[in-house]
Amino acid sequence: MSKQSLEAMTVNERLFKFTLMGQFDAAVIARDKKESIDVLLKARFTPEQANEIVSVIFQNPKKYGY
């Protein structure tokens, strides 16, 4: 998969593509920031992107279905 096609995907699309949705959901529900970031890294987000995504979700988990 090319970098361009990954960059065009949403967070959920990438998690689905790499079959990481369940792992990510479990980490967020457990409020495990390190594991949440690690899962996003497996979906080929940069460390900066992963940290930002998790920080935003953890600020208001209910907004994102958690």
Notes on the protein architecture:
67% of the residues lie in helices and 0% in strands. It is mainly α. The protein has one domain. Helix 3 packs antiparallel against helix 4 and helix 4 packs across helix 5. The termini are far apart. The model has no long low-confidence stretch (mean pLDDT 95).
SS-based structural class? mainly alpha
Average pLDDT confidence is 95
The residue ranges in which pLDDT falls below 50 over 5 or more consecutive positions are none
* Range of helix content: 55-70%
Strand fraction equals under 5%
- Alpha carbon gyration radius: 11 Å
State the distance separating the first and last CA atoms: 29 Å
Give a quick account of the main beta sheet: strands, pairing sense, barrel closure: none
Q: What's the total helix number?
A: 5
The gross shape turns out to be globular
How many individual domains? 1
Q: Which series of helices and strands comes N to C?
A: HHHHH
Per DSSP E runs of 2 or more residues, the count of β-strands stands at 0
Topology readout:
Blueprint: H1 3-7, H2 11-17, H3 21-29, H4 33-42, H5 47-59
Summarize this, please?
The protein is mostly helical and 66 residues long. It has helices spanning 3-7, 11-17, 21-29, 33-42, 47-59. It contains five helices and no strands.
